[in-house]
Amino acid sequence: MHMTTTEIFLIAMVIIFTIPYLIWRLGRTDYWAPLVVVQIIMGIVLGPGVLGKAFPEYYTFVFNPDVIKSLNGIAWWAVMIFVWIAGIELDLKKAWEYKRESGITAGLALGTPLLFGCAAAMILMSFSDGWMGPKGMTWQFILGVGMACAVTALPILILLMEKLEILRQPIGQRILRYASLDDIAIWGVLALILLDWERVGRQGMFLAGFAILAYLFRKLMVAIPEKDRWYSGFIWLAIVGLAADWAGLHFMVGAFLAGAVMDGEWFNQEDMDKLRHFVLMIIMPVFFLSTGLRTNWDVGGSTVFIAAAILLVASVSGKLVGVHAAGKILKWQKGEASIIGWLLQTKALIMIIFANVLLDKQIITSETFTALLIMAVASTMLTVPVVSPKLQKVKELIFRSK
């Protein structure tokens, strides 16, 4: 019996929401793999490299071009809202208040894994030409992969620290400061990588226009009641995303900028937490599947996993070395650097978004994207199992202010 595109789309939605939830709920994976991580893994499993190879006819039936187009539209808007929220939640006032400590830690926590990641990118390039995309230049590929190894996913970090019950404690607030500074650097580097000299006029126009409109927008938001701020914020998000994409900077960069110029205090914190929760629950699973559909194993599954392992070692070791160096400079107490270093390993979501942009711009290939995706999932899954026992050993540190 012939099925309409709508019916097949709804079959895909049933799969997207049912399978990860049942695995997470019945398998009780929350300790080592929160629901969001299970959804990302299932996005990979439902992609062409796993489901597509095992059941090619079923895969092409459900994930046909029309359905994929529909899913991609939802995924774009979902991730724009998510990145926008991440921009809004940046709190640089605290980072400025503790600028020496925050600057040293954030700089080393980002810079060291960035260098390690760049070295890993050069290793990949020395073995094969199949990792760099057709439109990527060598420096863009190396810097892009290096930054992917250095990324910390602020929204997932918040989620995990809530689970560990340290988010509102002094150590949790310190970690948020470090991650917030790194978040800005991540998007700044992405903008640099995407700098297009053929479109530099457009990009200059965008940045100049954005500065003026952001000033006027902030004036407007202060003047209107909170119930109107939400709707105005979404309109602003769409406009800035469109303008950034037109300028060649990608709509993700626009989404982050749209949120970064907004103040979290304009909104009720409880409502913002609910919005983040509902976006993660209702529409982000579509983005995870959309991401999984872009994975590729054409260079060979074992080769992709070897590349992912190289990137994971560079990422984890770089972050730990950088944070331990900061701990020595700032004379932290024993155990603090290890806890902070491992918590800053959380990469899922922001790194996946970052890698999606690199893939969209053909700076990396889908094989590199797959290796980065596996690395992001692995580093995030390591976080809670490693940090939880460490916290038990140094529990008194949680209640001390720095």
Give a verbal description of the structure.
This protein is an all-alpha fold and 402 residues long. It is 76% helix and 0% strand. The chain is globular and about 65 Å long. The N and C termini lie far apart (67 Å).
In short:
The protein is mainly alpha-helical.
Strand residues, percent: under 5%
Main beta-sheet annotation: none
Quantity of strands, as a count: 0
**How many DSSP H or I helices?**
19
Task: Give the radius of gyration.
Answer: 21 Å
The helix/strand order is: HHHHHHHHHHHHHHHHHHH
Structural class: mainly alpha
Shape: globular
Secondary-structure topology with pairs:
Layout: H1 5-27, H2 35-45, H3 51-54, H4 56-62, H5 65-88, H6 92-97, H7 99-127, H8 138-150, H9 154-163, H10 170-193, H11 200-223, H12 226-247, H13 251-260, H14 269-282, H15 284-292, H16 301-330, H17 336-343, H18 350-360, H19 366-393
Please give a handful of descriptors for the protein shown:
mainly alpha; 19 helices; 402 residues
